Amino acid sequence: MSHHSFRPLVFCALTALSLCASPSARALEYPYHTPEPQKTGWPLSEAERQYVLKPEHTRRPGSDSGQHLPKMWPVVASAGFWSGTAWLDMHEKLLKYVQANMEPVDILLVGDSITQQWGSPLDGKPLNPPWKKAFGELKTVNIGIGGDKIQNILWRLDHGGVAGLQPRVIVMMAGNNNMFFSPETGVEAVAAGVRMCLDNLREKFPNASVIVVKILPAHSPGNAFYEDIKKTNTLLDSLNLQSDPKVQVLDLTADFVTASGELKSHLFSADKIHLTQDAGYALFAEKLRPLVALLLK
Which domain holds residue 214? Predict the structure, then answer.
């Protein structure tokens, strides 16, 4: 099979909205083989480093062969890119943080900026007061990076991002930043990417329980971003993630919107995406705590 080929198991599942339904299908079975020289591991070879320092759009699945394959973007690992080495430097900073916490941990946080803002070494900040109040007695490692799409999280997981950790519970929320591209990728691909991220974590940590937090609402009803989040979350239900006894799905939408679907303004910052440090994160922690307690019994 050439590196331009799709793996039938994964690709057909995308269209059927049941990605990797077989328990033997794992996250590393990506549906498109890019020419990336080093698929896994850390440190990076010089060839891999030069590859990932190219702008991300030049490394998307299909770009090497002149194909436009946006449905593959959320389900194939791809390093992020901001400018120069900035994103890669963030990844490396988290690697050092992970390496300093290689003993067993209670909770591993995986995601984007909403995860990062629980408190992160990237900001030089400890875990925030709502987290400490709800989980202060539990050892927590946070590997969220603001701006990350699902494919960026996949790449970090594959390239040393969690190597050596032994988490008991993983809290994962991914996909918000993919909404900026959902007009091209479609929401089915985003839901499939969430499943791919889950499969990656289940492969790496078969003994850990995973809480998949559905994408939090953003903006307002009628806005494409808001509506695509809603559609993606509905598609996650059809993927039956909880058929795996080690997986729980947490849907907080009803807690963060009014009866008419508008965001509860005190829970969100001015951008209508991120959460307020007091009310937003306090509610998130309150809703997360009983499930974490149950899984840590």
Answer: 8-295
